[in-house]
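Task: sequence design from structure.
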């Protein structure tokens, strides 16, 4: 993936100087920031800022597998698939998953026809697994209405798994609709460009108002991707490369020496630690017992190595055995499996044993060779690797 120092040029369609879309809270219109002097000044500079950024993007925009090379039009399916995958996930992590999904399910109709378990298994490792269930549900809904995605933000928001940001991004990038696109990269760029020091998340409405003042009516998709690329490659969270920034002369935070300090954030609370015991249960033929998690909640619908509940207090094996889905003579494996979720950290120990009455076990049996094809989330793949390394 090229960065701003890449000397290869990316050919993109060029257009006359952009015009700016009317913002939801534009000066003189309704909204919480009407008449705000700083925002009014931003609107006055919008044409210049947008032109400069698009000129930079035409030379230095990233080449990504879901982006259409001019003169091709963006494929709404690719745009939607990439935007869902990119929620809470980096471009580097998404790239290989996007390529595999596209090779296996090249159209929204193909994805809609796929079994949910196949989609969950292909998603395993990307995290935030509700996205995979919503992705499948959305594909089925779009396929049922002719395979065409809605081309408006309102229509897109009505689909499973599509919120305000994703709807705006798809509308702008796939359909060239004027929209205010605001992801984490663009929030950071707006905070620095206008030296807005209010901490996140309280600053989000104000940063969106700045973004709305700049959102153009021409090339809205290119502008949105340009702003994302600026945040990802130049205006990075640490050590921004201000000397290469197309908005170098316009950036208030750079002039004030605040670029690395913005956007401001409140201190994060320490994550609580939870504990559990996972049960590595074997059958006589070597098969391992798996269990499906409930559809709702954390890791919903994914397969798991059965475990106790995850709680603040560590488990004693005698207490945990009552939660096991099979009767066995248990022994504890040495070591821990550690995993971080968004809101807590988890430590799992592993108890292993052979089921005494496998026909009564609560779950489904899977051969060791078949584990790779199951929809096991990252934490459970860690459990598998730990058990395989220490149980045999």
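Answer:
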């Amino acid at each position: 993936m090229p960065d701003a120092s890449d000397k290869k040029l990316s050919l993109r369609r060029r257009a006359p100087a952009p015009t700016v879309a009317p913002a939801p809270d534009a000066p003189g219109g309704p909204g919480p920031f009407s008449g705000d002097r700083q925002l009014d000044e931003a609107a006055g500079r919008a044409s210049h800022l947008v032109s400069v950024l698009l000129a930079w993007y035409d030379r230095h925009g990233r080449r990504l597998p879901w982006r259409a090379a001019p003169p091709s039009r963006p494929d709404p399916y690719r745009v939607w698939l990439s935007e869902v995958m990119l929620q809470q996930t980096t471009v580097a992590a998404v790239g290989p998953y996007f390529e595999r999904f596209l090779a296996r399910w090249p159209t929204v109709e193909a994805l809609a026809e796929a079994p949910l378990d196949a989609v969950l298994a292909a998603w395993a490792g990307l995290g935030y697994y509700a996205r995979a269930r919503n992705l499948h549900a959305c594909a089925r809904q779009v396929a049922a209405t002719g395979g065409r995605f809605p081309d408006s933000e309102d229509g897109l928001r009505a689909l499973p798994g599509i919120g305000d940001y994703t709807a705006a991004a798809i509308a702008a990038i796939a359909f060239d609709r004027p929209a205010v696109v605001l992801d984490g990269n663009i929030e950071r760029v707006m905070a620095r460009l206008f030296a807005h020091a209010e901490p996140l998340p309280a600053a989000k409405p104000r940063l969106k108002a700045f973004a709305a003042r700049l959102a153009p009516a021409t090339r809205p998709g290119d502008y949105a991707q340009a702003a994302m690329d600026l945040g990802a490659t130049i205006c990075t969270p640490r050590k921004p490369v201000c000397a290469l920034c197309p908005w170098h002369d316009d950036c208030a935070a750079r002039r004030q020496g605040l670029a690395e300090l913005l956007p401001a954030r409140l201190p994060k609370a320490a994550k609580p630690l939870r504990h559990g015991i996972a049960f590595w249960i074997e059958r006589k033929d070597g098969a391992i017992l798996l269990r499906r998690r409930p559809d709702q909640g954390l890791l919903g619908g994914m397969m798991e190595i059965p475990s106790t509940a995850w709680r603040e207090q560590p488990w004693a094996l005698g207490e945990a055995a009552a939660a096991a889905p099979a009767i066995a003579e248990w022994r504890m494996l040495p070591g821990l499996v550690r995993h971080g979720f968004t809101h807590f950290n988890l430590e799992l120990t592993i108890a292993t044993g052979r089921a005494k009455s496998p026909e009564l076990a609560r779950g489904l049996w899977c051969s060791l060779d078949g584990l790779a094809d199951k929809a096991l989330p990252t934490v459970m793949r860690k459990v598998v690797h730990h058990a395989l390394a220490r149980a045999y």
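The first helix runs from residue 37 to 60.
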